[in-house]
């Protein structure tokens, strides 16, 4: 059957007969040849219009066979979109599933990696079940979900390997039997030679060398990056030469670095066996530079490599094609005869062609019933509206119609029949509404895991105070919260710049490294991308990481990793993988261009799929952490940078009380105007409200507490129904987070209908805040700004009662 999985297994030549050895080699060749045929046929399917785009692993087949041999149950891959042969060889993918993904088939089970949401060669294995519970990750060959940005896989790779170190060295984790077997798992990474020019590659290589973790990086080197040759990519045109300084020696830890030709099958098998044994047993990172590879079909279906490669290069690539070289070696070594190999090749072509046909037919068959239903329904409507017959005829004649064509026809018929009532139209409307629900599941679901450990499922526990409750610095509330939770849950780990030894720059973790050890609370270098990747990888392996970014402004350095990888993980795998990372940072008001930022609109735009918590003080932050520690979805928590030394009352249940996400809170009730703000700006608003009350203006102040999700119980619109006036106060740039809040309240919550005047926003200036207290005053909303803006709004509504201030 075309769906069968043919896996490669480790070769122990000392225990094999010649016939056994021959069988293994021929099976490897079969996998490689099938993979090449899948690439060739896949490109043809794109060029004939059946698929939108294709990117393939042709030319990389043989080294991936060798890598697959060393890959064991429990291991992890964080790879590159040319690893299809590896996926076939390990059983992670079948040929048929490869084509189903090429066609973007969203039918359940067709594309088990992404549910039709990612292009071909983007693989993933099932880590979690529909309810969010974990699978036994030690019993499968694990593949973290691929992303297209080249080099982007490297950050997460660090975390996947670091988890093995923690599982081996921290015996408190021994009970997590479904996640590791004594930390023996290797994290395999792959990357193209040109992408080693990316900053995240060097950051990850350095981080792994410092951490000494079982990370095995394979570099597929075909001497080009799309059309750009290595002389423009890499110093000395050789990345392993560049990285020689990372090679370990007797006195200094580092890497083991290997270099091997990508067409030399026996040498590749030997190198991978040796390298991965070192990596697995000694927990030493290894780098395998696989050279002299080719790319027979060019970079992708968007162009031809004949445009930029010389005739000599093209001739060399034909001669040194890894499959041709393996074929020649098999003949020279008498492993197989010409007839045997020819038979394998003939059968492989038939097998791949049949798999492709099955995948294409199943894709169309999933749509044809919908196409027929719509044609029949519109044809029935045409009895009353003859002009609709053309729509039905066009859809009938559309060969290989996809769901878009079916829905376009249905919606056009519904539009053209607006105002007319008939049983046939009602039937089409019912069909459309039902299918829209199905399509939401196919194309829009699982932005969040929404499993049994979703933040929504965490019980709300109020903070408890009594006569003995102390007033302490806000930082002490956080410190007590972290202490309680680290004692409760050994899965919790925290890391970041200055987090360990000194307990972070604001002392939230003061003394905790000494109490819980360096494995659980640790310093890192200045490397924001791989701090985030460290968190993603640990979370994918069942741990509960707190990845700290020292200041909110510095989150920009890691935004690519968070946006491309973490935020989209649940969505792009349709819920089969999760990574409950908590990104801890601090921001808002302080001093200077790079220490007072509030780039919230950038975060809102980039991090859908994560929760965004903006607590007004450290008690609220602690409650949000308590919720997130018990939940299984990723979040960013932005602590108020100017709140660590403000006094707060310490809850008696500081490690247990929870603040629910998405639940806005009315801080002060009022009748004249609704003011929505968050974080540090709330104190500004509260101070302004005191003076406004003396002017006869009653302000209702609302803290949304989280921006993702935003006010799920509609506290804001209920307030607006009472006051009829709205002001949003925000430290972001004009039209930033304030525009997001307006869209939520006025459009989503339908607050527009309650307004009796123009809604206003009061934001920071368009530039970053200048240094100093005066710089803060003249660039971000001040108490004076809030008072005067609200007063002006009241003046506009009732100039007699509220005479103009500045006239």
TrEMBL record:
InterPro entries: DH_E1, THDP-binding, Transketo_C/PFOR_II, Transketolase-like_Pyr-bd, Transketolase_C. Residues 472-646 form the Transketolase-like pyrimidine-binding domain. Keywords: Oxidoreductase, Thiamine pyrophosphate. Pfam families: E1_dh, Transket_pyr, Transketolase_C. Its EC number is 1.2.4.4. Its cofactor is thiamine diphosphate. It is an enzyme of class 1 (oxidoreductase). E1 component of the 2-oxoglutarate dehydrogenase (OGDH) complex which catalyzes the decarboxylation of 2-oxoglutarate, the first step in the conversion of 2-oxoglutarate to succinyl-CoA and CO(2). This is 3-methyl-2-oxobutanoate dehydrogenase (2-methylpropanoyl-transferring). It comes from Pedobacter alluvionis.
């Amino acid at each position: 059957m075309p769906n069968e999985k043919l896996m490669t297994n480790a070769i122990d030549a000392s225990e094999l007969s010649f016939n056994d050895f021959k069988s293994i080699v021929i099976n490897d060749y079969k996998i490689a040849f099938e993979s090449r045929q899948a690439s060739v046929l896949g490109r043809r399917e794109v060029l004939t219009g059946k698929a939108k785009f294709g990117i393939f692993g042709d030319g990389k087949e043989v080294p991936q066979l060798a890598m697959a041999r060393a890959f064991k149950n429990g291991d992890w891959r964080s790879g590159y979109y040319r690893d299809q042969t590896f996926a076939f060889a390990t059983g992670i993918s079948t040929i048929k599933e490869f084509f189903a993904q090429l066609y973007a088939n969203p039918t359940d089970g067709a594309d088990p990696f992404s549910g039709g949401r990612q292009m071909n060669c983007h693989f993933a294995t099932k880590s979690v079940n529909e309810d969010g519970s974990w699978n036994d990750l030690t019993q499968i060959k694990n593949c973290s979900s691929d992303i297209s940005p080249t080099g982007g896989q490297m950050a997460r790779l660090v975390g996947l390997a670091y988890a093995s170190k923690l599982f081996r060295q921290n015996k408190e984790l021994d009970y997590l039997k479904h996640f590791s077997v004594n930390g023996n798992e290797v994290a395999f990474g792959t990357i193209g030679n040109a992408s080693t020019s990316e900053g995240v590659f060097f950051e990850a290589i350095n981080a792994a060398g410092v951490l000494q973790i079982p990370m095995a990086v394979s570099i597929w080197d075909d001497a080009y990056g799309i059309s750009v040759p290595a002389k423009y990519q890499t110093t000395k045109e050789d990345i392993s030469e560049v990285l020689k300084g990372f090679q370990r020696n007797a006195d200094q830890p580092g890497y083991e670095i290997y270099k091997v030709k990508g067409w030399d099958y026996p040498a590749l098998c030997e190198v991978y066996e040796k390298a991965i044994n070192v990596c697995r047993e000694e927990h030493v990172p290894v780098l395998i530079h696989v050279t002299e590879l080719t790319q027979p079909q060019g970079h992708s279906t968007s162009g031809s490599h004949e445009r930029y490669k010389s005739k000599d290069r093209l001739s060399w690539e034909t001669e040194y094609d890894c499959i041709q070289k393996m074929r020649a070696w098999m003949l020279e070594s008498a492993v197989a005869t010409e007839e045997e190999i020819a038979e394998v090749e003939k059968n492989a072509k038939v097998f791949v062609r049949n798999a492709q046909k099955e995948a294409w037919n199943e894709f169309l068959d999933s749509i044809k019933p919908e196409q027929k239903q719509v044609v029949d329904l519109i044809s029935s409507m045409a009895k009353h509206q003859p002009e609709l017959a053309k729509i039905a005829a066009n859809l009938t004649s559309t060969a290989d119609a996809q769901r878009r064509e079916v829905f376009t026809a249905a919606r056009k018929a519904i539009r053209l029949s607006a105002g007319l009532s008939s049983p046939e139209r009602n039937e089409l409307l019912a069909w459309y509404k039902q299918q829209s629900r199905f399509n939401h599941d196919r194309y829009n679901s699982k932005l969040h895991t929404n499993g049994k450990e979703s933040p929504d499922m965490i019980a709300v526990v109020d903070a408890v105070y009594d006569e003995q409750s102390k007033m302490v610095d806000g930082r002490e509330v956080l410190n007590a919260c972290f202490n309680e939770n680290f004692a409760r849950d050994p899965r919790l780990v925290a890391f970041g710049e200055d987090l360990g030894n000194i307990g972070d720059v604001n002392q939230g973790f003061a003394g905790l490294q000494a109490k819980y050890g360096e494995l659980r609370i640790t310093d890192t270098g200045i490397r924001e991308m791989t701090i985030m990747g460290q968190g993603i990888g640990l979370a994918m392996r069942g741990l509960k990481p707190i990845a700290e970014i020292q200041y909110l402004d510095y989150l920009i350095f890691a935004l690519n990793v968070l946006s491309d990888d973490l935020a989209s993980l649940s969505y792009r795998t349709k819920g089969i993988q999760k990574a409950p990372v908590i990104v801890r940072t601090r921001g808002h008001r302080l001093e200077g261009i790079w220490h007072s930022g509030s780039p919230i609109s950038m975060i809102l735009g980039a991090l859908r799929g994560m929760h965004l918590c903006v607590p007004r003080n450290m008690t609220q932050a602690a409650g949000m952490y308590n919720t997130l520690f018990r939940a299984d979805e990723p979040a960013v928590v932005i602590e108020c940078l100017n709140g660590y030394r403000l006094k707060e009352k310490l809850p008696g249940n500081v490690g247990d009380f929870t603040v629910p996400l998405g639940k806005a809170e009315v801080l002060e009730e009022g009748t004249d105007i609704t003011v929505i703000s968050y974080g540090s700006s709330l104190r500004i608003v509260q101070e302004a409200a005191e003076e406004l009350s003396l002017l006869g203006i009653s302000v209702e102040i609302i803290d949304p507490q989280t921006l993702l999700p935003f006010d799920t119980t509609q506290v804001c619109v209920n307030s607006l129904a009472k006051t009829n006036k709205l002001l949003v106060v925000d430290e972001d740039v004009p039209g930033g987070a304030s525009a997001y809040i307006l869209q939520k309240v006025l459009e989503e919550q339908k607050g527009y209908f309650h307004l009796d005047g123009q809604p206003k926003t009061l934001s920071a200036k368009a530039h970053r805040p200048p240094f100093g207290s005066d710089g803060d005053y003249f660039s971000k909303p001040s108490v004076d700004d809030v008072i005067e803006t609200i007063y002006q709004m009241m003046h506009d509504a009732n100039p007699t009662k509220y005479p103009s201030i500045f006239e």
